[in-house]
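For this section, I looked closely at a protein sequence along with its fold in token form, which I now present.
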Amino acid sequence: MSDPLPAHYPPTDPSPAPAAGDDPIGAVLAAHLEVIRGLEALRPQLQTFAERAWSCLAGGGRLLWMGNGGSAGDSQHLAAELVGRFERERPGLAAIALTTDSSILTSVANDYGFEQVFARQVEALGRPGDLLVGLSTSGNSPNVVRAMERAAGLDLYRVGLTGADGGALADCCELCLQVPSRNTARIQEAHILLGHLLCDLVERQAVAAAQRPGA
């Protein structure tokens, strides 16, 4: 018999999935669209996120991304969109996913515990003026929360992407975008859309800056 999960790993949404009837695809699509439409309420926070991200990058700072599981994948995806290209040609933008170096992740987890895998990297790599983004559908991922707490003492601007409750992450970020859902899959789908919107807004600024005389 496997060991029980720790208390901080409850399912994000203990309620049953939407009633699918004879059309499970339609039920999921309807639930997805409802959540996506609800993101309109996050427009001011997203605009602030984009403004702070561009200010960070334009000033020589970097965006640091972190999360677990699917959120780790989203962190790598969004960092890649900024370093490479989202939709427009422009200079590369400094973004680092703290989820990719298996040697760092495993050595820190082995020596200090898994809750420290991001905090240690923030301590080593973060610089004043950088921006740290933490993705957690529950808002209660201990390693994400510990990293945000460490970043607070290093003068990094802290942004969280969570679900409806916000969790502990909402209390240790300067800006928290709380997707209006408690279903893990729907929150993840919204997170990648918010990330793509961020990339679009930041990229527009980068293109405009590159086209200014003397750039």
